[in-house]
Amino acid sequence: MSEMPLLSARDLQLHFGRIAALDHVDLDIWPGEVVAIVGESGSGKTTLLRVLSGMMAPDAGRVVFDGQDVLAMGEAARRNLMRTQWGFVHQNPRDGLRMGVSAGGNIGERLMAVGARHYGNIRGEATAWLKRVEISPERIDDLPRNFSGGMQQRLQIARTLVTRPRLVFMDEPTGGLDVSVQARLLDMIRGLVAELGLAVLIVTHDIAAARLLAHRILVMRHGQVVEQGLTDRVLDDPQHPYTQLLVASVLAA
Amino acid sequence: MTYDPGYNFAYLDESTKRMIRRAILKGVAIPGHQVPFGSREMPLPYGWGTGGIQVTASILGPDDTLKVIDQGADDTTNAVSIRAFFRRVAGVATTERTAEATVIQTRHRIPEHPLTEQQIIVYQVPMPEPLFRLEPRIAETKRMHALADYGLMHVRLYEDIARHGHIATSYNYPVMVNGRYLMAPSPIPAFDNPKMDQMPALQLFGAGREKRIYAVPPYTGVRSLDFDDHPFRPIRAPHACALCGSRESYLDEVITDDSGGKMFVCSDTSYCTERQTAREAAE
């Protein structure tokens, strides 16, 4: 791990009316690190993700990515960051994919957005990525709306990772999938993260998924980070009463 | 010639014409950028050239000679009625010969005869937004234009090649103007796209229903989008015109009977007639 965090947030605050969605949140992510944000619905997990990725402006605080102030930069620069250095995997693949565009076109879009203009190369890259996310390359010209939920999610990951981002935001990537599909997806994400050396910030309410993927865990409640630390430490020896409740609530199969 | 005294010169009132001229000047200053304007009700239905007719009315002077073409033809309803309209409300001379015209209003074609610095071509545009159908939110398309974020347009061309093996867009083929703005050239055939590049004449585009004006100044680069390994190709029916024998002009396929009979003729009637006259004179 290098000396400088890749993404660093300080004292983020955001209020929705009287409700504090983010209450003095600090966060650092180092290159190659997987950080999970866990907590119940409405605890501010997704809001934090949206603020960190510049999709939403906080009331106060600073977000710095690789030395650049994310909240102060212009929209052009932020979009450029979004399609080169960052990736965003949505909970619902419909939000991240173009359902009327073929699988190959979906993967190629980011390449074309950064200036790829050779059809053969784009198609080659799309084929390679379909294989990597375990989708048959024969389906390259099929529309994602004819794919299963798990396949759509894997396609969304391929589309996001094709430009080799350094930091990927994932919002409940396994939400809405059945358990066997979830397990396969988590396995794939773990493999890709290790292989590409990605830094990942993953929001989930699934403690098991967090244990499988994350190096570090942040526990959020009512807009505050109540506990953070190494995954095994937080899950095996929870300090905060809420974390203890959360860990105790996990159903054993 | 005189015009109908019941109307202001060229139908529109002077302040409306000034407003449209301001939009045109702004359009010329930012080649390919869509400028909103206060489109007026015109005495013809939307889709018949309400945008083009307002632009023409604003730039027309008493000494101008007007030519109007509809799909290349001078003698179809749209062309005849717009020509008659301006003869009546502006009293301008009209012509069917491309070389004689100073203002050419067109629907879906660029004349075969090369245009000069003395001429202005006015396009009737149904949908000015090239990203329409790709991005449904107009606010988002504006942002994409502002940031020159045009990857999406290439996605459409990619889809064309993936489905058909080649770029199958044959009209309204997207172009980059002056290396900056993505522009819909109006539904002209892709065959006409190369004529827009470095054209000596001023090109004005009017969309009445969508209330947008845009322009390409003389001698401006207009490049059709493509891929390195699938370059842009202007498409033309591989035949000779049945009337004048041209192998260079853009052809229309005309069905002649109910038993599959057909012929290919020039879509530019003025060009075709001139060639036929010249051939007869030579004989």
Low-confidence stretches of chain B: none
Largest binding interface between chains: A-B, 23 and 17 residues
CATH class of the largest domain in chain B: Alpha Beta
How many domains would you count in the coordinates of chain B?
Answer: 2
Strand runs of chain A, count: 10
Strand-residue proportion of chain B: 15-25%
Helicity level of chain A = 25-40%
- Distance between the amino and carboxyl termini of chain A: 36 Å
Please trace the helix and strand order of chain A, writing H or E for each element: EEEHEEHEHHHHEHEHEEHH
> What overall form of chain A do the CA principal axes indicate?
globular
The assigned structural class of chain B equals alpha/beta
Number of alpha- plus pi-helical segments of chain B? 7
Average residue-wise pLDDT of chain A: 90
**Poorly predicted ranges of chain A:** none
Under CATH, the topology of the largest domain in chain B can be stated as Rossmann fold
What order do the helices and strands of chain B follow? HEHEHEEEHHEEHEEEEEH
* Biggest sheet layout of chain A: 6 strands, mixed
CATH architecture of the largest domain in chain B: 3-Layer(aba) Sandwich
Tally the beta strands of chain B: 12
- Record the strand order, biggest sheet of chain A: 6-7-8-3-9-10
Molecular structure report:
The complex is a heterodimer of chains A (253) and B (283). Helix content of chain A is 39%, strand content 24%. With 253 residues, chain A is α/β, with parallel strands linked by helices. A six-stranded mixed sheet of chain A has the order 6-7-8-3-9-10, sandwiched between helices. The longest helix of chain A is centred in the C-terminal third of the chain and has 18 residues, at 179-196. The two termini of chain A are 36 Å apart. The model of chain A has no long low-confidence stretch (mean pLDDT 90). Chain B has two domains: 14-224, Rossmann fold (3-Layer(aba) Sandwich); 236-283. Chain B has a seven-stranded mixed sheet. Chain B has a three-stranded antiparallel sheet with strand order 7-6-10. In chain B, strand 8 and strand 9 (212-216) form a beta hairpin. In chain B, helix 1 crosses helix 2. Chain B starts with 13 loop residues before the first helix and ends with a helix. The A-B interface holds A 75-76, 79, 83, 98, 101-102, 104-105, 108-110, 112-114, 117-120, 122-123, 140-141 and B 143, 147, 149, 151-152, 154-155, 158-159, 161-163, 226-230.
